[in-house]
Queue: 4 jobs
Job 1
Amino acid sequence: MLSFTFFKSGDYSGYKEMGDIIMTGDMGKPETSPESAEQRINELREKIRYHEYQYYVLNEPEISDAEFDRMMRELEQLEQEYPELITSDSPTQRVGGEPLDEFSKVTHSEQMLSLGNAFDAGEVRSFVDRVYRLAGHRDIEFILEHKIDGLSAILTYEEGSLVRGATRGNGLVGEDVTPNIKTIHTIPLKLKKEAVDIELRGEIFIKKEDFERLNQQRMDREEEPFANPRNAAAGSVRQLDPDIAARRPLDFIAYSVLDPKRHSLKQHEETLELLEEQGFKINWYEKYKDVEQIIKKCEEWTAQRNELPFEIDGIVIKVNDLALRDQLGATSKSPRWAVAYKFPAQKKTTTIQDIKISVGRTGALTPTARLEPVELDGSTVSRATLHNEDEIRKKDVRIGDRVLVQKAGDVIPEIVKVITEQRTGQEEKFEMPDHCPVCGAPVLREEDEAVVRCTNITSCPAQKREGILHFVSRNAMNIEGVGPALIDQLLAEELIDDFADLYFLNKKDLIPLERLAEKSAENKIKAIEDSKEREFFRVIFALGIRHVGQNAARILSGAYTDIDRLAEAEKEELKELSEIGPVIAESVVSYFQETHNREVIEKLKKAGVNLSQNKTGDQQRELEGERFVFTGALDNYTRNEAQDLVRSLGGRPTSRVSGQTDYLVAGENPGSKLEEARKLGVTVLSEEEFEAFLK
Ligand code: IVH
């Protein structure tokens, strides 16, 4: 297979063959005047664009890699000589930017809605019926397309040249990822046909084959493989270094044009034609009127989806007539003129090879089935969670069983059922151990709990390790560069025994550890040091008190000025706090009764870790009295958490937008509050802006 390698500067496979064709022989410098240079540059750009299109979009290359590279090389040389002739849409400009510190925000010209879902034939019929009802007739054409499982992007062209590529973000505000977008060869830097101003939307994705190769490379370099092609694509688009993005095999399919009237488009089919003529890859599509035929097609694709070179998670059904689309309009979340038929989760049979127990931070013993690997929805599955003892009993799962597995939610696979008809009698029943498989201490199953726990809370190595991992994790102390590998080594070398010990490490302790360079050791020590300044609620969460999640930690940090006050709190007074129930209250009290925990906290104090609400206290005055309303889903907080956060800083979360509202925070799929806020001139913040605002 051909593969062009021109995009990294100085890395052209055809380089050595250059001289004879385009060079004039004397030291390789072409003899050109500015005028002829300009002409040649334009000619080369045209040719290169044509061949890029043939190769990447049509998959029908007409020339060899070497020939192509030669043209690129010549163009680059000419542009080096005449830098004033470089334009941003030149094929040489796909890579070249410096790594960024962060992406700037882009407010979309039009809210980027998402699609409603139909999970079965009945829901497809309801969608079509609603269209009939709202349209007042049944003579309606629908276009079916693949729902590509990637991430959507919005591209802006001015006078035919790509000026911006942005992510969808929360639908209102996305990120400007132009340098990364430019590295995608199926995105033309210059439109093929007319030099128009146009905004369009499409999906960035990675083909299955390219994904496998990418993951293999990552594993060869001992890097964490991506869970699936969509994660790989999303991670690549959000790379701050465009050089890295350029090495990722990203692809793009365009599926809509914003403001179609401006381009005299009347039907979706015409939109797709226009996109195709302008040099984009477009989706498979077919036109139907009859709902039963639509359903049949959806079902056909359910069976055939695996034959495609990229992953799709459904079929999008769209009204063809654009005027009718306007008439149908949209709800706050999604248009009424389209729906996504979502494929049912794939289920496959495999064999349970073994059942293993892992011990978590709170001592919980969790059984996991080790499976004979199977391909499910595009990734290889070799484990499934069994949750707990009751679950194993209920499903009567035995080692050696043939089982049906599916992916629950996004990633975690689960066992749907055992295929008992295929039992041979050789299967082994599984018993939960009565001792911790890691430390050997007896286990205990508390009344009303499904979970069995290791009772050795102070020195079980598994609990210790998981507790430390929790402490350094992103939502807790967020200590970058201190992960499982390092913690395992530190524990093995007895350099630490609990998370507080991290603060007493120095560079010299780390350097002798396997594969740790001085600079890297220095960075890790600095990251640990910096974490001493984390907000009080993070520290409370990081302690790992059972049942105290981020939300409860925020409430506790708002109610108690420092760790000593919290440690002295009685159950009754804790229960008085909103959202703190008896279970959490009990757990907090017993945490602080434990001598070992008190010792760890003393060590944190000695190390100088922030254990009081000073900082939050200062901010408290800043938000005093400000009214916040939330709409849509936030990435980093539940609605309650976000409201508590506002409350803990002295602000007032309210549920309705009114003239008195100061801020509306809009997450994913915002509701009608957004329009209301706009009408009333209330300041609208995205989640990122909200976070920045609090800082
Ligand atoms: S049309 C108003 N067509 O699915 C929404 N979306 O929520 C217009 N997607 O964010 C979207 N393939 O990223 C459309 N052929 C296709 C698509 C597609 C994938 C994604 C898109 C969108 C999500 C739906």
Job 2
Amino acid sequence: MKLDETTKNMLVAEAYEAQKAAYVPYSNFSVGAALLAKNGTVYRGCNIENASYSPTNCAERTAFFKAVSEGVTEFEAIAVVGNKKGEKGGFCAPCGVCRQVMAEFCDPDEFLIILGAGDKTSVYALKDMLPLGFTNENLKSS
Ligand code: THU
């Protein structure tokens, strides 16, 4: 996908809006994501923590699961922002589990991951964030 500046900036702004809802009483690290579906809809996601820690859901997966649970499974790009509360912070790259979820639904050559921090952005193809990933292709008989 070719990402124009307007779309990129819109997605980063949506990710910052999503970040406002982050539920982070344990880490104080709030993350926001904005996932652009091929049908043009943007799904916002935030991280949601838990006293038992392991049920914590990352912002990226929240956005994906919102979309997939509504029957939407084709995506163009995701923007991600994250920082400790009250701090500026740098780029917040998706964790390995979130990259794996992206690989389930997205074309590794086409799907773009936009990292935002203030007015800085950096864009990666999924294949560069998850090289040699395990996918449904591996489960097919040879
Ligand atoms: N987190 C995300 O939401 N996305 C990432 O890609 C990295 C980590 C969240 C999980 C947890 O709530 C907090 O950041 C600190 O790890």
Job 3
Amino acid sequence: MSKNITGATDKYLQRFLNGVEKRNQNEPEFIQAVSEVAESIFPYIADKPIYHEMQILERMAEPDRVVMFRVPWTDDEGNIRNQRGYRVQFNSSIGPYKGGLRFHPSVNLSVLKFLGFEQTFKNSLTGLPMGGGKGGSDFNPKGKSDNEVMRFCQSFMTELYRHIGEDTDIPAGDIGVGAREIGFLFGQYKRIENRFVGVLTGKGMAFGGSKIRTEATGYGTVYFMQNMLEHVSDGFKDKTVVVSGSGNVASYAVQKVNDLGGKAVTLSDSSGFIHDPDGIDQEKLDFVLDLKNVRRGRISEYADKYKSATFHEGRPWGVKCDIALPCATQNEINGDEAKTLVDNGCMGIAEGANMPTDLTGIGVFQNAGILYAPSKAANAGGVAVSGLEMSQNSARIAWDEEELDQRLKGIMKGIHDSCVQYGQQDDRVDYLAGANIAGFIKVAEAMLSYGHT
Ligand code: NDP
């Protein structure tokens, strides 16, 4: 790129970011997500004036609409409680809004806008016709009885149902929203609408769910890492892998690492992490799945049960490893932690969680030249199989596990290859730029076709 173009690009980028910051004050996560994408897109569109003229990125950084609503519910003691519910319908240029629901006390508009923005690019990368959306509530399911969770979900859906539909907006799970919550939500939707349609994904197998959906995000993250390793003639065999989180994504990432011959040695939750140098094998993982999904306990109990393991406060990034898979939450790797990983010889990061690395941390990985897969590419397997669940629901069919796993692998390989196509630099692949540009192109083309909408 010539010096003039570079100078002009920096100027446009700065002007764009200033505008985003001004319009979205007090939304740090959203500004962070938009900045990370814009830094890749502005150089790409520098010599494509149509994108500037049509204000494509400016429009992409504004949700189509945001719905906010009151969610009253009654706890087991008979007290009336009040939560805030949201659905951010971010961009429907290439398909109906699609993205999960998060129930966590940290949920606010900034978090859901960042997730909805990211989702738009991620869904585009899958190659399936899905737009981007995200929703949720500041409700905390932790410590609540099943009946309390049910009453909350029913109240949440009593408002949400009018904003969603199988061809409009199809939510799924995310942090705090697993099989139990999806069941309660779907039951209430069906009751209000008197229609049995695929309006949610991640459903139970008895009522329209898809095989592999539960496993898809974790498996897909590991498949993406495997693709990156194969691209540099390497593989998972005998690699030590540090994983954060102990929920849906983390658990199935560990399972797939084991399948491919690697050794996962950590899991975490918001209280701390366990380190098991012997590896977390299937028997230990079954204990974790029961602990988290049935008994709803803390990961520290793992170290009480398995003497090979120790429990520590904080995050697991100080444990020496070859590969790191952050699978808990946003901004869980800062600059110092990224540096520790690199200094300890970590050669690859694939983000199972959404935006787990902050902007400084990303800079550390990029400068070190190690394999770094951003979340919108690495964790797209979950929404990809959600897209396949939608197809199965529409066609009233059910594919078997093998077929779905093959499709998942194919989609993750396709995303990998798109990142290589748009991120290839002299001697390495910039997966961050590749994912951002590849995700952008399809949405931008659709928006150009629609004119000023
Ligand atoms: P779960 O609720 O199943 O598990 C979340 C895990 O992360 C728990 O171990 C939880 O610990 C931990 N965690 C959550 N918040 C924090 C925090 N603030 N600090 C430390 N630990 C925390 O969620 P998922 O596994 O579904 O989601 C994990 C990540 O993956 C999220 O970023 C999500 O957006 C992303 N993702 C999920 C997809 C899916 O299909 N489920 C699809 C694509 C991305 P604790 O129990 O103590 O809170």
Job 4
Amino acid sequence: MLDNDYKIPSHVAIILDGNGRWATKRGLKRSMGHKEGFETLKNISNYIFSKGVKILSVFAFSTENFKRDKEEVDYLMNLFIKNFKKLINKKNDAKIVFSGRRDNLSKEILDAIEETEEKTKNNKSHIFNICFNYGGRADIIDATKKIVDDCQKGKLDINNLTEDVYTQYLYNGIPDIDLLIRTSGEVRISNFMLYQAAYAEMYFPSTLFPDFSNDDFDLALDVYNKRNRRFGGINYEKKNN
Ligand code: FPP
């Protein structure tokens, strides 16, 4: 394959899975897997942006994850509070946004979210979308409520509601995913970005997230490049990625 034919997906999304198993395999507490997972995320996000990916979405915490043991949830919340802003990286110029419901979150979490968003709001090169207290169906329902509200207020004519307009009502208006990766060998999308995943190429490496390396991402890109994206057509690529 010629180098200039090599396609870089515009939007990559990752379901960060396998932290608990990574720790358990080593006789460690599950929380140690989350700690290591954070280090991996810091590294891999920079690498992914350096490859020219415009948007990176990650599933950091689902609404359902609140059902875990209190000890694990508390550990994760503290990890998020301390580390969200450590994802800010001057070199990659990424705007960090958070997608998900903001209700029922502690003040400390809300402050950490706000500070991180505020500090990066003028960054232009990339978008780092952190899905937190996130559910794909909730994303669609919340968008629908905003659409109904705008229609009632006369701000939107229902006849002008296209798929692209609908996208703008989703959390942060995040567009379609090109490449969706779930680590750890699980083969499902678990309520992650359901609307935006409609035509995503999916890749399910068995690597547990804390072990997911730059080389693993390069392999994902190679797999993506071998796929023939048809978008329901015969042999048609909708866009050049
Ligand atoms: C799923 O693995 C992972 C999570 C629920 C948490 C993911 C969080 C991180 C990687 C840290 C990110 C940090 C920031 C600041 C965004 P699991 O616990 O379900 O693993 P298992 O399936 O092996 O049990």
